[in-house]
Amino acid sequence: MEATSRRSILAASATGALLAAAGRASAQPAQAAAPPGAPTMDSLRQLIEAARANSPGLAELMVRHLPGLQVGGAAAVPPSDIVPTAGTTTVGTVASSNVAAVWGQDVLFALNSDKPATISIDTQAPVPMMRVGGTDYWYRLETLRIGATHRFALFSGGRDVGANAVAGYTPDSYPIEGAARGTLSEKRTITSQIYGGAQADYWLYANAGIDTVRGAPLMVWQDGQNCVGARDLINFRMQTVTDNLVHQKRIPPMVHLLIAPGTGGEKRPLRFTGEDQGNVMRSLQYDTVSDRYGRYLYEEVLPEVEKTVKLRQDAYSRGAIGQSSGGICAFTLAWFHPERFSRVHSTIGSFTGLQWLPDEHLEGGYILSNRVRRDPKRNMRVWMSDGMNDIEVDSNGRQDLYVAGSWPLNNIQLANALKTRGYDFHFRFGTATHSSAQGSMDLPESLSWLWRDYDPERTEATFEQEATERAKPIYRVQIANRDAW
């Protein structure tokens, strides 16, 4: 079992109540209709029902809602050239990402495999998956508790093809009756001169009731393509969660900039197997410890955004969020320009050496914990989460991940630095893997914490470490998998 949320673990009766409420809410007209055929919360529920009945339309619903199935299964996993030592973990792969859907306590796991498939859930012995007739799709429907994350490992013909985790969402991640739905823009594309002609897609999601006179608060979501369509429904559920929190007055109505990493652009030296000019830009933008990405947003992206929506200009009303490389990116946006961004949300952040480039005089992300200790204190509020099973040795032959360092230890380093310097921060560290599960399950709580006490009449505030955090000790690490004296 993965780390649980501090919010209460809800019983089966509460699960029934949330599903009933979600069913009523889904019947309400949305402010912005989804494109024809686009996955919705209601169709997600239909997927689970189809799996329970093994209905003829199951394969079509699985493909619509589980983008990972379209990539392929065991054949897509590269051969290993790094052998992990005992006790290390397999991180997410193309075979284990975006292949699980959740509705209440019902969790559907899937795999694309030309061989019989099995699955291990929460470290239990593998059990058979069921084949969808006439396809290479396999699935298993399980009843799992909400308020916790659940780790799973997939096997194709007995071969381990990857592990991942899934969130047991709590009620705030389902549509709440009476909560007005926000609006999603069409996809837009921007070309960057700062990154040598790289192009990036982006969308705007505006919660109902944004202030069009003074301007709206802003949240920038790195890897924003994952907050659109099916990927949003099976990961963060950003649209539903933020609409619910606005309705509950736990966050202000705001504009969410959902921006994907750039593609193309300047030519970069390829350092690792599997890199190409089509995917090297994401790490360059997100993992580089400099103000370059901040300049890109401030000088190129936001001026385009502000042609269609009015935004608040004060750092008090601006935040950034991301996971993995997007997590360190969110942090550096505020670190280098606290006068522009002050609220940071990082989950499984890559505070490692992915863009440690001595020849270009660039330090890796690991340097940030030292800079927090040594540099003048910034006015930032920071939510972080990670887990002990985050990346340390990757069994898929990803040498770039292996040489970059330890994700868990570098997150702990940064948390301790924030703690000792008196930053307003919160760090949730459990047993989670390198996946969106913990961050997705926590999102109602983490966004509420990040935007707590927001006052639209103000343009600034000094963030102070909470008294409850000040009373706690710094983080300490204990050996858990071998003898220690």
Structure notes:
Strands 9, 10, 11, 12, 13, 14, 15, 16 and 17 form a nine-stranded mixed sheet that branches. By secondary structure, the chain is α/β, with parallel strands linked by helices. It folds into two domains: 12-171, no CATH class; 172-470, 3-Layer(aba) Sandwich (Rossmann fold). Residues 1-13, 23-33 and 73-92 have low confidence and may be disordered. Helix 8 links the parallel strand 14 (318-323) and strand 15 (343-347). The chain has helices at 12-26, 41-53, 58-65, 230-233, 238-247, 280-287, 292-305, 325-336, 367-374, 399-404, 407-420, 437-450, 467-470; strands at 100-103, 106-112, 117-121, 127-128, 130-131, 137-143, 149-156, 159-167, 183-184, 188-192, 198-206, 218-222, 255-259, 318-323, 343-347, 381-389, 424-433. Helix 5 (238-247) runs parallel beside helix 12 and helix 9 (367-374) packs parallel to helix 11 (407-420).
